[in-house]
Amino acid sequence: MEAAAVTGPEASGGSGRLMREATIVLVLVVLVALWEGYKALWQAAGWGWPFPVNDTTMPHLYDVVHAFWEPTTTGGPPLIHSLLDAALFTMKEAIAGFLLGGVFGFALAVLLSHVRFLERGLLPFVVGSQTVPILAIAPMVVIGLGSKGVQGWQSVAVIAAYLTFFPVTINTLRGLKSPDPRAVELMESYAASSWKILWRLRVPASLPFIFTALKISATASVIGAIIGETPASIQDGLGGAIVNFNQYYSLQPTFLWATNIVCAALGLVFFGCVVLAEHLVVRRAPEQLV
Amino acid sequence: MSSDASAASVVSMAGLSKSFRTGTTALVDIDLDIRPGEFVSLIGPSGCGKSTLLRIVGDLVQPSSGTVLVNGKTAHRARLDHDYGIVFQDAVLYDWRTVARNVSLPLEMLGWSRERRKERVREMLELVELVGFESSRPWQLSGGMQQRVSIARALSFDPSLLLMDEPFGALDEMTRERLNLELLRIWEQAGSTVIFVTHSIPEAVFLSTRVVVMSARPGRIADIVPVDLGHPRTFATREDPRFFELVTQVRESLALGHGEAAGSRSTSAPEVY
Taking CB atoms and an 8 Å cutoff, what residues of chain A touch B84? Predict the structure, then answer.
């Protein structure tokens, strides 16, 4: 009798994890060294190409980190305080947009996969929707929905959803079609309805595809939320903070850099949540995990 | 006898033909009756339509003309009534499900209760000797074990007819011979009727009560060889002189069928050994 040949994915032990964490720290150190080294070299040599290097164009990283604890207004709370508030606000928009876009994107894919002529007729428009710059759409969404009494942050969520749904639709569509024709025939041999084939076969088979899309959408929804805040004139989020600190860049460049770091961190948190969910949900052969 | 033969048959095919839209004719004028408890192999060169024939019986492909009755019903009705289980060349297991949940998949479709499913899955895994692998994932099993899971799944809901499309074609010779013995044991225990598509002459003779020899393009029945080897069959059966005689008979029928049908296309050798 044959023995179970392959061991589970759990077999990759703790040493691989340690290696990965060490690599992340190492890359961070290298990036910091490159930044500070470049700055030191260009300043010492007085090179003006491709751009003049000084404390405004490239502030010291420790100044950027230090800026988190500086007050934004005299006697006011430290920057980190207002940035965290802004991040929470933007996160609310991004989560709402992510969920909205994810559900819509999934539903659209299911519809397109079941109605052949719709896929042919509608898909070009779905693709086309993504070639329109978000900056052109955002004011229309905000003004249009605003006239219907929709709150500003909800309009921004719709804009984030606009960026989110597309990868989900495209990948889900591919995933729904991914099962082996034999697997479909097997379900047909059980006289399964197409509803059952969808939920017992097509959707489980699409999960790796869907999670690949959700990873893209996770960061896209954060970007959509930040960009959407600008035409909506929303001051409470990270987009508002970027616009604000942009105006004072020549006086206080570290504030904008600090805001960028928070934006990146928010995107990473979103991404991490999706990866975590994927590990909990997708049970697949180890080599098939993306 | 002949009038009620179709009523007593598990499968009754009359004047079956199949042409594809591409213009190729896969099957011409197939008449075949399969009685309860029979183990019938379909053998023939590649492209002789034996898999297509199996799929017509399973209502996965529609014939161009002719009729198929399964248990006296149309193939479509039989499919809706869960009259047959199917095993493909690949195990086609769902790798997001454990072995046990793969076996219980058709039972879920039939709306069995959780307790009944659990009980049946245990019985089926005993039957295919995979007790202890309930919570394994398909990709943790060898090809032979995967195919046994697929057989357990096909038999789980007691279908009266088992359709097998080259189920052991992708396995090595040793695994294949052992699974042949196991399949015979399961067939005798379950008392089901089997239609078995294969490329292998010894496999067809070893397993079957009848071997249906098909000719190539367009596929038609060239010969039907009744296998009068006794049961139960063992490893020793393969050394029985009668076994060799039957293998020779099937091989000659294949060559004859091929010679008739080939004519201008004599270069395409049958993929049999």
Answer: 189
- Segments forming the whole domain that contains residue A255: 79-283
Contacts of B108 in chain A (CB under 8 A): 200
pTM for the full predicted model: 0.82
**Cβ neighbours of residue B223 under 8 Å, at least 6 residues apart?**
B212, B213, B250, B253, B256, B257
CB pairs below 8 Å between A and B: how many? 74
- Name every chain A residue with its beta carbon within 8 A of the beta carbon of B142: 2, 4-5
User: Where residue A179 falls among pLDDT bands split at 50, 70, 90?
Assistant: very high
In A, minimum Cα distance to B85 occurs at A189
Tokens of B48: 């002789």
* Number of structural domains in chain B: 1
**Is A249 a domain residue?**
yes
CATH number at residue A203: 1.10.3720.10
pLDDT digits (tens, 9 = 90+) for B14-44: 888 888 888 788 888 889 999 999 999 999 8
CATH of the domain at B145: 3.40.50.300
CA–CA dist A55, A79 (Å, integer): 19
ipTM field = 0.83
Instruction: Find the CB nearest B88 among A1, A182, A207.
Output: A182
Q: Using one digit for the tens of pLDDT, what is the confidence trace for A211-235?
A: 999 999 999 999 999 988 987 788 8
Residue from the list B79, B80, B109 with its beta carbon closest to the beta carbon of A196: B109
- B17 within some domain: no
Residue B14 within a domain: no
- Give the DSSP H or E segment for B40: strand B39-43
- Structural domain includes residue A225: yes
Mutation for B interface: A182, A184, A186, most B CBs within 10 A:
A186
Whether residue A8 is contained in a domain is answered as no
> Which residues of chain A are within 8 Å of residue B105 when distances are taken between CB atoms?
190, 200
C-alpha neighbours within 13 Å on the C-beta side of residue A12: 8
* Contact between chains at B109 and A180 (C-beta distance less than 8 A): no
pLDDT in tens, A69-127: 998 888 888 999 999 999 999 999 999 999 999 999 999 999 999 998 888 888 899 99
Asked whether the beta carbons of residue A190 and residue B105 sit closer than 8 angstroms, the reply is yes
- Is B257 a domain residue? yes
CB contact under 8 A, B139 and A285: yes
Of B91, B101, B151, B94, nearest to B127 by C-alpha is B151
Which residue intervals of chain A are DSSP H helices? Answer: 14-45, 61-67, 79-114, 116-129, 134-146, 152-176, 181-189, 194-197, 203-229, 238-247, 253-281
